Amino acid sequence: MAFxxxxxxxxxxxxxxxxxxxxxxxxxxxxxxPGEPADPYKVWLSEIMLQQTTVTAVKPYFxxxxxxxxxxxxxxxxxxxxxxxxxxxxxxxxxxxxxHACAKIVAGPLKGKFPDTEAGLQDLPGIGPYTAAAVxxxxxxxxxxxxxxxxxxxxARLHSIATPLPAARSEIxxxxxxxxxxxxxxxxxxxxxxxxxxxxxxxxxxCDICPLLKFCRGHASGCPESLPRKALRRARPLRQGAxxxxxxxxxxxxxxxxxxxxxxxxxxxxxGTAWEIYFDAAxxxxxxxxxxxxxxxxxxxxxxxxxxxxxxxxxVAEVANRRRAPAxxxxxxxxxxxxxAFPSVMRKVIEAVRxxx
Length: 357
Known about the structure:
The protein contains 13 helices and 7 strands. By secondary structure, it is α+β, with helices and mostly antiparallel strands. It folds into 2 domains: 6-226, Endonuclease III, domain 1; 238-355, Nucleoside Triphosphate Pyrophosphohydrolase, CATH 3.90.79.10.
């Protein structure tokens, strides 16, 4: 296949992509309708939620947040505990802490207005280079190259970039900047995202209906699925530990709040041991928060974090109604557990206990 000159190809590909987007754009709750200005609050909220999380998972959380806190001022007025509870189950909980901190700055010193440049946005908590570019382009029409995983795949294939990720990212961003139309940077960013999600999928891309087919060097090579190439990933190390589900006779369950910083900071948890690579299960019961007669469940809970895998043994005990919680712990009625800010791994522990009751 003969390809046009670089500038012609960039302009032609961008025009074809935008024409396709006009007809096939996804209907997403944070997107402005065609011809309407984008709401920076919705764009920012959705982009924070979408960090390392799928659109399908984000939609219900976004709608609940928007219903409860329809603007940045109201979100800023919420307590940190309320925000963490609303976020529970979405993962990567530092995002929720940064979201709340960012809302307070925007609603306070910035008087309710988000910065409209990449540099200004990156000064805010939780906003890195990609999120700053996405908000700047989509909410404010700035010519910023917003490259998410979908756009990364489209561009690597379009230009047949053989350098493995993450080393290829600077080249991919440069290609996006060269293609970007000055007048529609927000539509261009969202079109790239949609094309990657709907057409240029990781496996079995629908090349025959792709608007960029005639420009695509990856397709011309005959193996677009091989792009983008990725450096070999190390296997996640396995950490192990134990969780202690202590229930009083009145149905209350012992819980504690994790420290505000660090992994799962500020979240509620079922008490347990440290999570260690060299975990001695025989000594686990000695680390229980309350002295009681524990029975070990016949099943484990497993969970994958970004940098390690986790396997938890579960111990269950019943204690008297009058039993008080040790310092740093509290008893919560079992009917109220669903309102606590439990991360997904702790919800797995609770569900395992309920299934084995």
